Structures are given as structure tokens and as C-alpha cells.
Amino acid sequence: MPFLIAFVLIGAIALAFLRTPRGRGWLGELRVKLVIGKTKPDVRYVINDLRIRVNEEKTVQIDHVLINPNGIFVIETKNYSGIIYGTESQHEWTQVLKYGRVKNKLYNPIKQNKSHVYHITNLIGGSFPVISAVVFVQGNTKCIRASNVYNLRGLKRLIGKKEYHLSLDQMKSVYTRLTEVNDSSIKNSEHIKNIRKLKSRTAKNICPRCGKKLVLRKGKNGSFMGCEGFPACRFTKNV
Fold first, then answer.
1. In 161-213, which ranges are continuous DSSP H helix?
2. Which of 53, 69, 72, 99 has its CA 20 to 30 A from that of 15?
3. CA distance readout (Å), 230 to 131, 211, 220, 237
4. Do 233 and 212 contact (CB within 8 A), yes or no?
5. 211 and 138 share one domain
6. Per-residue pLDDT reduced to its tens digit, 4-33
7. CA 104 to CA 95: how far, in whole Å?
8. Are residues 16 and 65 in the same domain?
9. Which domain holds residue 231?
10. Checking phi first, is residue 127 left (phi over 0); if not, alpha (psi -120 to 50) or beta?
11. Are 82 and 124 in the same domain?
């Protein structure tokens, strides 16, 4: 009987945890891990929760990096429920819940992962195919009008697509480099604090990726703020 009570309590605690934002995030990342697999030398290399210290005020946290013969995949995991609306150029996307009675805003994950790709490319050099993938593990992507957005099945197809070819030496080289810079001492609280600083700088028209100024530009869809470091840095924000 005591064993049964303990089992029920553990189950209740686990269920309560999975209902929290942190728990949902953990579950989403677990489902992605099952798709991309674990590191298997000479076949694929995987780094989960890669943390990079760019400078004293900037840290980068990347959910998953997969290195296989088909490319270097930088994966951002999202476990949002409801209906998600968004386009590639929008600064914020919308999550709709409870038949439209609740609407939440979220930062465009395409832009978020572009920043991750930018920093990975700077670390390993520009000659490697670095591929962005934003994965909605609940599959609610039908109202998203943007490239590089996938459900779990789409992610599986993407990482198996033989569009590029990396040699074993190239795979090992990239994995070694990213392992060297992986800084596990970066705490979540520090990373969140740095994100807030970058948001403040972005509001003041300072590029959160490279630190250069954001200047007014005109494109086919109208005016926008773009990094003066273009084309090396392609960060943009809406006017």
C-alpha cells in the first residue's frame, strides 16, 4: 500500500509538472530528441541545449543542433497549443486559444532561429550548410505562412533529405568546435536577463545580433529597419 501511494503521488507531481510552461517545453524537446536521435559517431552528432557566450551581455541558447551528412540543423522547439498565426516578416505571431477568447503574442521564432543560425555560422565558418528548423511539436502549423517551419514528421523528412553532403571529417570538425564553446555555466536566469537587455537595445534601434545600428530601409513590402551590417547581418524589424 505505501508503494502504491508513493506511485500515485509521483504520478500526480509529474502530471502537474507537465502542465507548467517548463514541463511543456521539456516534453516538446523530448519529442524532438526522439526524432533526431542521439550522437552516433561517424553517423550523426547531436548537441542538446547548446549555450554560447557571445560577450558579457549576450548569451545564446539553442534547443538542438544535429550534424549529419545532410547538413547542420539548428532546431528551435515550440510546444504551443491552440492555433498559431504568423508570417515570415511579422515581428510577433499570435496564439489563439479557447475558440478565440484568448490571444497571446509570441516573438517570431523564424527570426529567433535566424539569430541562432547567424551565431553558429560565425563559429564554424560560412562554407557549411547551416539549416534552420522551427518545430511545432503539436503540429499546429497550418495557419503559419513561413518557410523553415515543420511538424515532427516534416522534421524527420528534412533531416533525411540528401541535398548536401558533409564528410566525416567535416562533421567531426563542426561537432568539436561547437562542443568547445558549449558553456554549461550559463544559467537560465542569466540568459533571460540578457534577452531582456537585447530587447531593450532593439527598441533603441541597435541590432541584437551584431551590435550595429538599425537603419531605415525600403523593400518590396514597404519600409523596415535593417542592420547597417547587411549583408553580413540580415536582422530586420518592423517600423
1. 168-181, 188-203
2. 99
3. 20, 12, 17, 13
4. yes
5. no
6. 665 555 555 545 655 676 677 778 899 999
7. 5
8. yes
9. 205-239
10. alpha
11. yes
